Amino acid sequence: MQHDATSKTQFAQAQPPRTGDFKLRPPAAGATPVTSSPPAATTPPPPASPRPADPATTQTKPYNAPNEAMTPTSLLIGSAILVVLAIVFLLISRAARGHLIGHKASPATAGSASWALFAFLLSVAATSVFGFLGNLWSVLAFIIPMGLLIAVTLILCVVLFNSGRRVAR
Predict the structure, then answer these.
(1) Is 6 within 8 Å of 28 (Cβ atoms)?
(2) Distance, CA of 76 to CA of 98 (rounded, Å)
(3) Best-predicted range by mean pLDDT among 13-17, 36-40, 157-161?
(4) Among candidates 165, 15, 14, which has minimal Cα distance to 102?
(5) Are 75 and 151 in contact (CB under 8 A)?
(6) Measured between alpha carbons, how far is 157 from 97 in angstroms, rounded to an integer?
(7) Long-range CB pairs of 101-110, under 8 A, 24+ apart, other chains included
(8) Is the pTM for the entire model greater than 0.70?
(9) Lowest mean pLDDT among 47-51, 114-118, 133-137, 157-161
(10) Domain ranges of the chain
(11) 63-76, pLDDT tens digit by residue?
């Protein structure tokens, strides 16, 4: 054992001193080695009794938030789905514009109605996609604004389609 201590001391002396490094002193000659495992003779501590939760330290979720937040992966998947649906909805709104122009509506009125249809379809799709992916159906902070957005775009779409049918070129 003495040989190991002297070789470690010699190795430490052979190295040039560096400033700012953390250095340990070699163990004393009579010191017992420290092991990382606890001795086998000790008994484990008794299990802690469960304490009631302190209402001041527990965090409450705002409104009725879901148990899990949306992950970046689910946000990416939802965004990709919305981009594909937006392209489909754009084609549908262009077809609706052509239909209104074919029924003697002015191009400006038909264009407004088709954009209102696009906004309505996209808001319904966004609510559905993120409602399913994020399990947000029970979150009032999500459902109320999205429901209002859908209602407003539906009313706008119906009003503009009806005015587009009445206006003649």
Answers:
(1) no
(2) 33
(3) 157-161
(4) 165
(5) no
(6) 12
(7) 103/165, 104/168, 104/169, 105/164, 105/165, 105/167, 105/168, 105/169, 106/164, 106/167, 106/168, 106/169, 109/160, 109/163, 109/164, 109/167, 110/164
(8) no
(9) 47-51
(10) 72-166
(11) 555 556 678 888 89
